[in-house]
């Protein structure tokens, strides 16, 4: 029997609910339902069957736990470059399960699996470079490269690692970096079965954001507000980073649709004015009511705000030195205004005289 066919051999059903693969020395208890997956996989798909059989021996599913046989099957899969079998062998050599610990071989097998875009292996490669393992010396840059690939494959632990990595130097992060770091950790918790209504409200009952807040020493509502910022279009998020738009204003603008945000950005650039918190809240309410169009956005943005009115600041010591001492402080403004009126008249008269 050749290797290609031996994994598809039809099982013979024996007494007492056992399934036997003739000529292979494999017996499974079909009363343990999880073993049925391995049986079906072995009959239907060669690579799937190899991995499933190896996992059954590793975990004692439908048969006795047997590391030697598990590694034998994972080895067969590794010969076929099956990514999960490569990963299992890497873990075995990393932890010394059924074999002597060998970091060199652990990295070798894990690299082969990771290069096939297998998410968990990519996460492990990130760990190898982050903590150092065998030939993988500590290298944060390479660790992050592998973690990012694992995040793209939605590996929760990689998301947590990346979130922790970015938040480690919290004070040096800008607002958008904090926002995406918190989001990564929240996404990881979501994949681990936590509640996911992270951005439905700014204030909420206990959520996964509370777990993050406890770890980071902040409030859950602060975490949720940061996560809201990830809803901003890049141009407005950049304004928040540059502090042209206040954090609280950015949070409110994040509730606008993408088109509404784009219209807001264009109005801000055209008018050279940024919205106040009250204006951002106003636009949010209009958006939720379906009444926010480009004309309304431009009108709101163009409104003069108290903090954007031109201010004239006069130094008190300089002004007082020019005011007679018998003029009380309460009359200083009147005195200055009258002096400016007289000076303005003088300038007009001189201009008229010079024009003759």
Describe this structure in words.
The structure is a single chain. 62% of the residues lie in helices and 3% in strands. With 356 residues, the chain is an all-alpha fold. It has a three-stranded antiparallel beta sheet, covered by helices on one side. The longest helix has 24 residues. The protein starts with a helix and ends with a helix. The N terminus is likely disordered.
Name some characteristics of this structure.
elongated
Rounded mean pLDDT score: 78
Write down the overall geometry. Answer: elongated
Low-confidence stretches: 1-36, 194-206
Main sheet record: 3 strands, antiparallel
Number of strands: 3
Q: Order of strands in the sheet with the most strands? A: 1-2-3
What is the string of SSEs from the N terminus onward?
HEEEHHHHHHHHHHHHHHHHHH
Number of helices: 19
Summarize the structure.
This protein is mainly alpha-helical. It has helices at 3-6, 33-44, 46-59, 67-79, 83-95, 103-114, 119-131, 140-152, 156-168, 175-191, 208-216, 220-229, 234-241, 247-253, 258-271, 277-288, 294-302, 316-320, 332-355; strands at residues 12-13, 18-21, 26-29. The chain has a 3-stranded antiparallel β-sheet, with helices on one face.
What is the secondary structure topology, with strand pairs?
Layout: H1 3-6, E1 12-13, E2 18-21, E3 26-29, H2 33-44, H3 46-59, H4 67-79, H5 83-95, H6 103-114, H7 119-131, H8 140-152, H9 156-168, H10 175-191, H11 208-216, H12 220-229, H13 234-241, H14 247-253, H15 258-271, H16 277-288, H17 294-302, H18 316-320, H19 332-355
Helix pairs in contact: 2-3, 3-4, 4-5, 5-6, 6-7, 7-8, 8-9, 9-10, 10-12, 11-12, 14-16, 15-17
């Amino acid at each position: 029997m050749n290797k290609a066919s031996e994994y598809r051999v039809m099982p013979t059903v024996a007494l007492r609910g056992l399934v036997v693969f003739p000529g292979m020395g494999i017996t499974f208890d079909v009363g343990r339902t999880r073993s049925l997956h391995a049986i079906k996989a072995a009959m239907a798909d060669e690579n799937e069957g190899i991995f499933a059989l190896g996992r059954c021996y590793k975990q004692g599913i439908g048969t006795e736990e047997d590391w030697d046989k598990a590694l034998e099957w994972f080895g067969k899969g590794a010969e076929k470059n099956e990514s999960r079998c490569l990963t299992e062998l890497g873990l075995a050599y990393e932890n010394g399960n059924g074999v002597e610990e060998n970091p060199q071989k652990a990295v070798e097998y894990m690299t082969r699996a990771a290069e096939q875009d297998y998410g968990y292996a990519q996460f492990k490669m990130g760990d190898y470079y982050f903590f150092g393992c065998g030939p993988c010396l500590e290298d944060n840059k390479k660790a992050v490269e592998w973690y990012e690939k694992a995040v793209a494959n939605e590996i929760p632990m990689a998301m947590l690692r990346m979130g922790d990595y970015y938040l480690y130097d919290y004070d040096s992060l800008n607002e958008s970096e904090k926002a995406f770091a918190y989001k990564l950790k929240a996404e990881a918790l979501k994949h681990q079965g936590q509640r996911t209504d992270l951005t439905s409200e700014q204030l909420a009952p206990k959520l996964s954001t509370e777990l993050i807040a406890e770890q980071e020493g902040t409030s859950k509502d602060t975490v949720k507000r940061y996560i809201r910022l990830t809803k901003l279009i890049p141009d407005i998020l950049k304004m928040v980073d540059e502090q042209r738009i206040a954090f609280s204003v950015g949070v409110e603008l994040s509730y606008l649709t993408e088109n509404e945000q784009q219209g807001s950005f264009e109005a801000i650039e055209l008018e050279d004015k940024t919205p106040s918190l009250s204006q951002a809240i106003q636009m949010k309410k209009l958006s939720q009511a379906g009444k926010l169009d480009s004309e309304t956005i431009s009108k709101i943005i163009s409104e003069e705000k108290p903090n954007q009115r031109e201010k004239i600041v006069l130094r008190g010591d300089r002004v007082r030195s020019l005011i007679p001492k018998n003029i009380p402080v309460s009359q200083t403004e009147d005195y200055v205004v009258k002096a400016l009126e007289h000076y303005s008249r003088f300038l007009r008269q001189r201009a008229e005289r010079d024009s003759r």
